[in-house]
Design goal:
Structural class: mainly beta
Number of helices: 2
Low-confidence stretches: 136-149
Radius of gyration: 16 Å
Helix content: under 10%
Strand order of the largest sheet: 6-1-4-7
Distance between the termini: 18 Å
Mean pLDDT: 79
Length: 149
C-alpha cells in the first residue's frame, strides 16, 4: 500500500520494520510504500498537542519511503503538488498514477484545478480541511456504484 501522510496540526510519529522512524509536523509530507512483511505504526508525536492529519492510501508499484517539507509560502494562495509519480516540482515520488496537492487560502485567494487529461471525475477527489470557504465543484458520482475500472 502507498501511504501518504500530511500533517495539518500537531505532530505524527512513524516507526517501521525497514528502519525508518521520524516525527513529521505541519508542512511535512511522508510517503511510505509498504508490501507484505512491512510492519509500521503512526502515533501522536506530542504528549501535549492534538495531532490532526490526512492519511491517503494508494495501491503502489514497489515498496519505499520518503519525506519532504513544504513551507506555507510554497502553498499560500495556490495548489502545490506534494506527491506525484515522477516527483514533479520536488514532490514526494509515489509508485501510482496519482497526484496529491495542498494549498493554503485566505480571504479572496483562489485556485483553479483542471482534471488531468485522461482522468475522470470518478478518479478525482477534493478534500477541504478546516475550511469555511464555499466550493463550486461538479457533482461527483458515488465511488463504487458509478465508477468502473
Amino acid at each position: 500500500m502507498e501511504i501518504v501522510s500530511y500533517v495539518l496540526e500537531g505532530a505524527l510519529a512513524h516507526r517501521d520494520s525497514m528502519g525508518n522512524g521520524s516525527t513529521i509536523r505541519p508542512g511535512d509530507v511522508q510517503r511510505m510504500s509498504a508490501g507484505t512483511g512491512v510492519c509500521h505504526s503512526e502515533f501522536n508525536g506530542s504528549p501535549t498537542e492534538t495531532a490532526h492529519f490526512l492519511q491517503i492510501w494508494i495501491i503502489p508499484d514497489a515498496p519505499g519511503y520518503e519525506e519532504k517539507r513544504f513551507t506555507d509560502d510554497e502553498k499560500r494562495g495556490r495548489l502545490r503538488v506534494i506527491a506525484s509519480p515522477a516527483g514533479d516540482d520536488g514532490s514526494v515520488k509515489i509508485g501510482a498514477d496519482a497526484r496529491i496537492f495542498a494549498g493554503l487560502f485566505d480571504g479572496a485567494e483562489r485556485a483553479d484545478f483542471d482534471v488531468l487529461a485522461g482522468a475522470s471525475m470518478c478518479k478525482s477527489r477534493v478534500a477541504a480541511c478546516r475550511s469555511t470557504a464555499r466550493r463550486s465543484l461538479p457533482a461527483m458520482p458515488p465511488s463504487s456504484k458509478t465508477c468502473r475500472r
